[in-house]
Amino acid sequence: MEKKQGITIGMPMIGGLIAAILGGVVWAAVAAMTEYEVGLIAILVGVLCGYAVVLFSNKQIATVHKIIAVAFSLVGILLGKYLTVVYFTAELYTDMGVMSLMFKGEMISAFAETFAEYFSEPIDLLFVVLAIVSAWQIPGRMAKTSMAAEAQAPNQAPGA
């Protein structure tokens, strides 16, 4: 775990990765259940990554933590899109299961080749931007809230 000036980044990265995976799975599960991609889930992924980074950093937030939250929110969105494509592809080809198709090189290559199509609609880009904004702002706001709570802690002597 790398530590610079009292700031850890290893644990926040682990938290961001866990949140990205969880968010991507939730994205795909909602898409599978509704047979529709709900763009608001992208914002949820951003919020989830922001909170996870804060929790795994012991609320010691620096700009690098905001960057970590944003990066992993993008990973979560990408994973959600990929898992959704895998699910609907598996539905088309009933002889293949989702798990076997998920790790096939052909599936990964096809997704990479058609990547731009999955983010071609303006509404898709809007939700990605909102996810980025959420992931960036959550750590900063939680750090300010934490510092304010510490300043008002009951262990301080009451004023006369």
From TrEMBL:
Name this protein carries in UniProt: Uncharacterized protein
Membrane as UniProt keyword: yes
Ranges annotated as spanning the membrane: 12-32, 38-56, 68-90, 118-138
Keywords, ordered alphabetically: Membrane, Transmembrane, Transmembrane helix
Species annotation: Paenibacillus barcinonensis
Superkingdom of the source species: Bacteria
